[in-house]
Amino acid sequence: MKLPFLKTITKSTTQQLQLVNLNQQLANLTRSNRYSDSLHLFTKIHSSQHLKPDHSTLSTALTASANLRQTSFGNQLHSHAIFTGLRFYPHVANTLLSLYAKAEDLHSVKWVFEEIENPDVYSWTTLLSACTKLGNFGDAWEVFNKMPRKDVAVWNAIVTGCLENGQAEIAVSLFSEMHRVGWMLGMIITLLLAF
Q1: Which whole-number Å values give the CA distances from 55 to 4, 78, 85, 133, in the listed order?
Q2: Burial profile 104-113: b = 16 or more Cβ within 10 angstroms, e = fewer
């Protein structure tokens, strides 16, 4: 008795395993700071007739692109994320935020953030850090005040932004507020790293 569906299942499983293996190679290259090699491998995966990049493939390629400051390649990856629907994966969306933050493109950071259905603390912190890094304190305060949860990374981002941009009085005020709400240790670490 022949089972034609079994051949289809086997082929699909083999392709999935192959993609998992390639994703691991891609991640290893990126973690090893071999960003150009990582993007080269992504291009090979993307051009394959049998494999389709998934959210893991795309977010790793976005990380490599961001670290190389290759915004034009990152823009192409962003277009791919929109076309394939992968932009809705939280990790892809957050990696897009990082790409544009590293490129100092606050407009794109805000645009990507607005597209995220349920931003997590990483999304909020990346937006906040981009605003402070670029000296846009009006937006930074707005983001900070809208945040549903503020962890030590959020407090560190706003205080560090103040310190790096000559806003020492505001940083001291925030330091007092952090102490009041119980984030003192994180603040001490931030101050030590800032000087």
Answers
A1: 30, 12, 9, 28
A2: ebbebbbebb
Q: What's the CA gap between 12 and 107, in Å, rounded?
A: 40
Measured distance CA(118)–CA(96) in Å, rounded: 15
3-state secondary structure 102-170: HCCCHHHHHHHHHHCCCCCHHHHHHHHHHHHHCCCHHHHHHHHHHCCCCCHHHHHHHHHHHHHCCCHHH
The length of the chain, given as a count of residues: 195
pTM: 0.81
Give the residue among 43, 69, 70, 68 at the shortest CA–CA distance from 58: 43
With a pLDDT cut of 70, the percent of the chain lying above it is 87
Residue type, 168: A
Residue 69 pLDDT greater than 70, yes or no: yes
143 is written with which tokens? Answer: 């983001």
Residues near 164 by beta carbon (within 8 Å), at least 6 away in sequence:
132, 133, 194
Tell the burial category of 17 from Cβ atoms under 10 Å away from its Cβ (0-12, 13-18, 19+): exposed
Asked whether the beta carbons of 113 and 87 are under 8 A apart, the reply is no
Report, as an integer, the average pLDDT of 165-175: 83
